[in-house]
Amino acid sequence: MTQEPEISIVLPGYNEADNIDAMLAQVQTVLDKLGRRGEIIYVDDGSTDNSRQKLEAARERFPNLRPYYHRTNFGQSAAILSGVRQARGELVITMDSDLQNDPDDIPAMIELLEREKADAVCGVRQKRQDSRMKLFSSRVANRVRHWALKDNITDAGCALRVMRRAALEQLPAFRALHRFLPTILGIHGYKVIEMPIHHRARQAGVSKYGVGNRIWVGILDIYGLRWYRRRFLPPNRLNE
Predict the structure, then answer these.
(1) Alpha-carbon distance 113 to 121, whole Å?
(2) pLDDT digits over 129-177, tens only?
(3) CA atoms of 114 and 120, how far apart (whole Å)
(4) How many Å apart are CA 75 and CA 44, to the nearest integer?
(5) Percentage of the chain surpassing pLDDT 70?
(6) pLDDT of residue 238
(7) In the chain, what percentage of residues exceed pLDDT 90?
(8) Which residues pair with 192 in a beta bridge?
(9) Mean predicted confidence (pLDDT) in 55-67
(10) Regarding beta strands 7-13 and 91-94, do their DSSP bridges make them parallel or antiparallel, or are they unpaired?
(11) Which CA distances in Å does 66 have to 113, 160, 183, 195, 240?
(12) Coil vs helix vs strand at 28
């Protein structure tokens, strides 16, 4: 009988065909070093390039790869939700599929999570290798969010996170979930800590984000999170 994986690595991707082979190889190398049973869940979010063909071809080289396909592009939050729902490991790791996150940071993040008995470890990108415009929009969005939510999350846009699957069972489904996931876990009463991680320049493909879909939409979502925090009913309060 095949044993269940201990670790599930969720990779949301949209038109990242040129990065798929290198991404899978790097992630698999880290899983091998960890010596734990793992699975790689690549959620293709309705790509229009040859991502599907690349993923199907890669299944022979990576037996623990589990591709999951959206029929159209629903966005990063939907892809992360699909991956989390497919995950079987006790630990769920999310990261970008564009090679800007470094999988070599994962072992230290797992070690920190277990040592601190935390529910989530979120990466804080150091020496970011992004355009000035992207850095500016991210800085503004983080400052506005921190002012409004007081959540003490340094880098809400960082996708590299190590989380306990048990902490992800009550995630609300909405389009900006991926940017507010650490905040939501904190609202739910889980212990969220941060750790500095590496950041790499994009080598292939194009960024899917800009000022328009990072700042203005994000500000509206912040007010939604403020409402959610006030109205959230913790399950452990129901039998008090």
Answers:
(1) 6
(2) 656 666 556 666 666 666 667 788 888 889 999 999 999 998 988 888 8
(3) 10
(4) 10
(5) 82
(6) 47
(7) 62
(8) 120
(9) 96
(10) parallel
(11) 25, 19, 28, 28, 41
(12) helix
CA neighbor of 205 nearest in space, from 41, 24, 40, 48: 48
pLDDT tens, position by position, 68-123: 999 999 999 999 999 999 999 999 999 999 999 999 999 999 999 999 999 999 99
**Distance (Å, whole) CA 218 – CA 103:** 27
CB distance 76 to 12 below 8 Å: yes
Cα 66 → chain centroid: 17
Check residue 210 and give its pLDDT. Answer: 52
| Helix/strand/coil (H/E/C) assignment for every residue in 107-163 | HHHHHHHHHCCCCEEEEEECCCCCCHHHHHHHHHHHHHHHHHHCCCCCCCCCCCEEE
Name the nearest CA neighbour of 46 among 3, 75, 82.
75
Burial call 107-146: b when 16+ CB within 10 Å, e when fewer? eebbeebeeeebbbbbbebeebebeeebeebbeebbeebb
The DSSP-derived string for 149-208 is H----S-TT---EEEEGGGGTT----TTHHHHHHHHHHHTT--EEEEEE-B----SS---
Residue 10 β-bridge partners: 41, 94
Burial of 36 (0-12, 13-18, 19+ CB in 10 A): middle
Residue 227: per-residue pLDDT: 86
Cα–Cα distance list, 227 to 36, 143, 167, 177, 237 (Å): 40, 19, 21, 15, 19
Average pLDDT along the chain? 87
Residue 18 exposure: Cα atoms within 13 Å on the Cβ side: 5
